[in-house]
Amino acid sequence: MGKERPFPLKGLLLCIAVGLVLAPFVLRWLWFRDEYVFLTIEESSLNALSGWPMSFADIPQVFIDANEKALILSEKANLIGVHLGVHYSAVSQGVEFDEKLIFSRTGKASIDLSSPASFMISDMDGYLTELVNNDARIVKGNLEVKKTLRDGTVEITYGGQHITLKPGDVWAELLISEPTGVRAVSAADWEEEIDRCFRMGYPATRLAIANRGLWPKSNVKVGMYP
Length: 226
Fold this sequence. Notes:
This protein is α+β, with helices and mostly antiparallel strands and 226 residues long. The chain has a domain at 34-170 and 209-222. The protein is built from two helices and 15 strands. The chain has helices at 9-31, 190-200; strands at residues 35-45, 63-65, 70-73, 84-92, 95-104, 109-112, 120-122, 128-130, 142-148, 154-158, 161-165, 170-178, 181-185, 204-216, 220-222. It has a six-stranded mixed beta sheet with strand order 5-4-1-14-12-13, with helices on one face. A hairpin with a 5-residue loop joins strand 7 (120-122) and strand 8. The radius of gyration is 23 Å and the shape is globular.
């Protein structure tokens, strides 16, 4: 009878190394097999639009039903391995002019809020006109989701701040651009300061980040915008 060949040590070490690398991915896949953490980022500017659109056909529409924890999309999304969803919207005077939906398999996401937004419309003569005044969007640049935890907590960096949001938590900031510079306003003074900005014509932007918690993947569906 021949002797059994011992399993090479290098092969064993390689298998262990591969297992250690794959283990976190396998665990995340199991943790978020049926659910994902849903984050909404809402940018609302006082006077970022220079006109009123006649049509909203160019704006991608994602319908969010917070009560049912459901999303209605225009096309099917592949949610295998996804454990973070981020919806970003930018509005001014009640009109949405930018929107993004990100599904992440790493639990990380990045949105450059200082990137110029664009919303073009045709005038009566058929010429395209840009409605967005990006100088009136007062934001602090890149927003990054650095980590998504099993319990739904997310860790975010924005404008030099580290923000941790557990499910149900909301973080918000109002920035005003005045002749003396940009300043943040305390929440207790928001209404008064927005009224003053409206009278004076100062640009102002409120950014709100909400951790909506764990949402079922089965409620991400394709359909028409209600």
